[in-house]
UniProtKB/TrEMBL annotation:
GO MF annotation: an example: GTPase activator activity
Biological process according to GO: signal transduction
Protein name: Rho GTPase-activating protein 20
Organism whose genome encodes this protein: Cuculus canorus
Transmembrane segments: none
All residue ranges annotated as the Ras-associating domain in the record: 137-255
Length: 322
C-alpha cells in the first residue's frame, strides 16, 4: 500500500526548484507522478519527473521540495514486464512494469492501472524517439567468454542501440562458433560504478549501458546530452578511468551448467566445485574477471573456514546460504 505521509505531489511541478534546475532551451517538462520502486525485497517511495530526454527520480520532502535521487537519459533506458525477476513478492501486473537504466532494474508500481498505462505509453514513446537521435547508431562491444570450453575468448561485436542483451548473447555465440541459446548463457556486466559484477536479465540494452559510461567520461557540459559532438569513433575505444570502465562477460547460466552435469552424469569433485563457486561470482569486481577459465582448475572456495565441498550435500549449497 502507498504511504500517506511523505508522498507529496507538487502543487505546480514546473515551479519546483528541482524541475527548474533541469529546464533548458531544448528540454521540456512532460509528466510527474508518485510511484513505488521495488528491487529485490526493497520498496522505496519516489516521485518521477519526466522530461523530453530525461527521467528524474526524487524523494518527496514537501509539496515544493524534492531531493534528487537519480536521473537517467531516456536513450539509455528500457521497459519490460518480467517483474518476478526483479523483485520479491507478488505485484499487480495491471499497476506495474519493469523500468530500467544502466546498472538498474526496478519494478515501478503505480496507484492505478490508468497511471501505469499513461507512464508506460509516455516512456516507451520518448525512449523510442530519443533512441532515434542516438549518435552513433552502433558501437564496437567487446565480449569476453569465460567458463566456455577450455580457454577464454573475446570477440568484438558491432552492437546497435536496439539490440537487447539476449540479442548480443546470440550474436556472440554465433561469432564464437558455440552451440546454444540465450537461455544457456548470461551476459554479465563488470562496471566501475558497482561493487560486484551483475548478470543482465536479457531485455536490457548493452549499447545504452556502454554509452552511459562513455557519456559520463565526457566534459561536464555535454554529459546529459544524448549525442555530444565529441562522440567520435576513436573516443569509443579509448581507455576510460577505472570507475567509468564497463566490461561484458559471457558465462554459462547456472541452470545450463547444472543441466550439462546431469546430462553427462559427471559427479566428480572438480566439477562440483565449479558449480559451487557460481554462487560466489558476485564477489568483488576483480573476482569474476580473474575467475578460473576452466572447471578443472577451479580452486575450492571456503565458508567460515570450511571447504564448500565439505558442507554441500549432493552438489547443493546449504539452504541458509541460498
Amino acid at each position: 500500500s502507498f504511504c500517506r505521509e511523505g508522498c507529496f505531489s507538487p502543487i505546480s511541478p514546473e515551479a519546483c526548484p528541482l524541475v527548474q534546475s533541469f529546464m533548458c532551451h531544448n528540454r521540456t517538462f512532460l509528466l510527474d507522478g508518485h510511484v513505488q520502486l521495488k528491487t529485490g525485497l526493497q520498496t522505496q517511495e519516489r516521485h518521477l519527473f519526466l522530461f523530453t530526454d530525461l527521467l528524474v527520480v526524487a524523494k518527496s520532502k514537501s509539496h515544493s521540495h524534492f531531493k534528487l535521487k537519480c536521473q537517467a537519459r531516456l536513450c539509455e533506458m528500457w521497459t519490460a514486464f518480467c517483474t518476478e525477476e526483479v523483485c520479491e513478492g507478488s505485484t499487480d501486473p495491471e499497476r506495474s512494469f519493469v523500468l530500467g537504466w544502466p546498472t538498474t532494474n526496478c519494478v515501478a508500481n503505480f496507484r492505478s492501472a490508468e497511471q501505469r498505462e499513461t507512464w508506460l505509453s509516455f516512456l516507451q514513446s520518448r525512449i523510442r524517439e530519443e533512441k532515434e537521435k542516438d549518435y552513433p547508431k552502433s558501437i564496437p562491444l567487446k565480449i569476453i567468454a569465460k567458463d566456455v570450453g577450455t580457454c577464454a575468448y573475446s570477440k568484438t561485436l558491432s552492437v546497435t542501440n536496439g539490440d537487447t542483451a539476449n540479442d548480443v548473447i546470440l550474436m556472440a555465440l554465433q561469432q564464437l562458433g558455440i552451440n546454444g541459446s540465450e537461455k544457456d548463457y548470461k551476459l554479465w556486466v563488470i562496471s566501475g560504478r558497482e561493487d560486484a559484477p551483475y548478470p543482465l536479465i536479457g531485455h536490457e540494452y548493452p549499447f545504452g549501458i556502454k554509452m552511459s559510461h562513455i557519456r559520463d567520461a565526457m566534459p561536464h557540459g555535454s554529459k546529459h546530452c544524448a549525442c555530444p559532438r565529441q562522440l567520435q569513433g576513436s573516443f569509443l575505444t579509448e581507455q576510460l578511468p577505472q570507475e567509468l570502465q564497463c566490461q561484458f562477460v559471457l558465462k554459462p547460466s547456472r541452470l545450463a551448467v547444472c543441466q550439462q552435469l546431469n546430462d553427462l552424469g559427471q559427479k566428480s569433485c572438480k566439477r562440483k566445485r565449479s558449480i559451487i563457486n557460481w554462487a560466489f561470482w558476485r564477489g568483488p569486481g576483480t573476482h569474476l574477471d580473474n575467475a578460473p577459465l576452466s572447471s578443472t582448475s577451479a580452486a575450492p572456495g571456503k565458508l567460515f573456514g570450511l571447504l564448500l565441498t565439505a558442507i554441500c550435500e549432493d552438489d547443493n549449497l546449504p539452504k541458509p546460504l541460498l
